[in-house]
Every structure is written in structure tokens, then in C-alpha cells.
Predict the 3D structure of the following.
Amino acid sequence: MYLPKNHFIKEESLPTEDYLAYFYPFDKPDFRKNGVESGWSVTDREGIAITMAMGSSPQAVAMGLQKECAERYDWLVKEFTDWAFTFMTSFLYYMDFDTIDEQTRSLYRQGISAFGGIAPTYRIALEKDSPVIVWDFHSLLIMVQMCFSFMLTDKDSDMRMCKHCKKAFVASRKGNEFCSQKCKNQFNVYKSREKKKGNKSDNR
Ligand SMILES: [Zn+2]
């Protein structure tokens, strides 16, 4: 929900109350606005604790952690569906590369290039021994999305797609291609059946 003002976002396109109504569907926060200055009052103890702990963070961060803050179920479903699509694409593209035509390959590539895009910002901090990159994720969504992207592009990642049932799984050992022994057995049964049905001279 947090859209910080930046080079691109300079003006409000929606009244603050309407925007907040998206994220506070149950109880509206007591929000006051005066030009660029804004404030809101919290009355319950946990809310006050969160607000105090988040004192140095932007206001929206503290608001996002409040009890009444929520996001729509269908938005989340859409987001998870996108992630699943991207995950599948990144595996199927290489798995099916030889059996699909160039037009289909191009569709895969376009599909995956539409993913992501809202990059977090970062700064560099001088830590004790060496400089480090400090990411500024302005939402949990972007953080998960970026970690997910790193995992997808990391050759050593344990995230896989089962060669048989096509479901995502975490490989316990390097080179694991199946989510379970059951899938591995089934795959081999089907494969040997296909071989028997097909060209007998193709015995490798
Ligand atoms: Zn499986």
C-alpha cells in the first residue's frame, strides 16, 4: 500500500480518505490532513506501541502494521497467480524449448518480461568491515517478489518444478527432478510405456 513520493509520483490522484478506504475496509482510521502535513490518532495499546516503535519510519509503514489494515483477497490471489505463472514459465521455457516453435518461445519471453518492474531503492552503508547494500523495500510484496526473482535466476537455488506433476517443490538434494519418489516412479513407468509403443530401434 505504501507509495512514497518520488521522481514520478508527485501528485495525488485520489483523495487520501478514498485511498485509505481500500486498506481499512472495517474501521476507518482517524486521519487528519493539513496540506502536506498529516496525522492520525491511535487509541488502542498495541497500535500505540507499533506507532512508537516505527517512529523513524514513514507514516505509511506504521499504518500498514495496524490491526485494521487489510488488503483485498482478490488482489492477493491475482498476485500469487502472477508469481506461479512466472515460476512455471521459467521452467517450461527450457524444458519445452526444443518442442515449441519460435512464436511460442517469444510468448514465454514476453510473459516473463512483464513480471517485476517496480524496483526497490537502495543505499550503501559503511558497515564495520566493508560497505553493504541496504535495500529499501517499500512493501512486503516487493520484498517477496525480489527474493523470488533472485531464487529463480540462481542456478544453485533449491526451487524446482516437478518433471512429472509440474508442481513447485524444494529440492532436498542437488539434481532432484521430482517432488516425490511416487512421481519419479510414475514418470519412469510412463516413459518406458511410451518407449515400448514407439520406435523399438530407439533403445538407448
Ligand atoms: Zn511431482
Remarks:
- DSSP finds seven helices and six strands in the chain.
- Residues 73-160 form one domain.
